[in-house]
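Re: Re: token formats

Sure, here are both.
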Amino acid sequence: MIDLEAEIRRFVRVRYQSVFDHVHRTHARRPVPIVRQAILDELRRLGTTPRMELVDTAAEFISSGGRFELR
């Protein structure tokens, strides 16, 4: 039987990771506020209400040139 909760978590993780990867490709090494807004725009486009703590952490990593990965 399929573990629905695990599948939902995996789906959300993949969606978020795809947004972080896209923003990294398009906005790496830009100021944190610009990266943060790019992440928010992409997540909202997908219809997702993001946790700001996660968005802020990802924006800081991407702004510094690093690739943010969910674990």
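Second one below.
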Amino acid sequence: MNLQEKCSVLYFHQLCLSESGDGTYGALGWVEKGNQLTRFDVLSNIANLNGASVLDLGCGYGHLKKYLDERYYNITYTGIDFMPEFVKLAQQTYAEDPNALFIRRDFAEGELPLADYVFASGIFCYRSSDENYYKQLIERMYTAAKKGVGFNMLDIDKFPISGFLKAHGIASTKAFCESLSSNVVLKQGYLPEDFTVFMYK
């Protein structure tokens, strides 16, 4: 993803932030809160996450942490996002939580922190002129994961063509993931335009 494309993503979220307000699901670009929670429900079923360390790319306000804390215990959570407003509020919200760390940086650059499970919800929906961007990010997530990776994408067969948003082919995505992992699981049917991929070590 080049600099112009990254600036477009930042601008998009700045608009969402001004329209919906800080701390809201709308600021993150989600149409409905329920859809985000549905995606979280699928991701959280990757394994028994009790006592696990989790890395969340594109963490926003840390809503996934809240979701996981309600279902599992003793999770060590690290969230990365490059929107300063998101990270600032997340840091304030979880300032007293010793098991929460929020980092403002571009997760597409540099090494990722190691974690048992690496998650990404929504980050692959932004268009990049570099098709290798998505593969490289998936590979970096898999390298950082000790036990597994979970991410979701828009289905190119169900999602209308958009100049800003990006949908992906299920078969080609699964095939690439299988070139990295011998244990790949595909999840469909939870939302009309979505699919989720689990990659296990």
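The radius of gyration is 16 Å. Residues 3-20 form the longest helix (18 residues).
- S.
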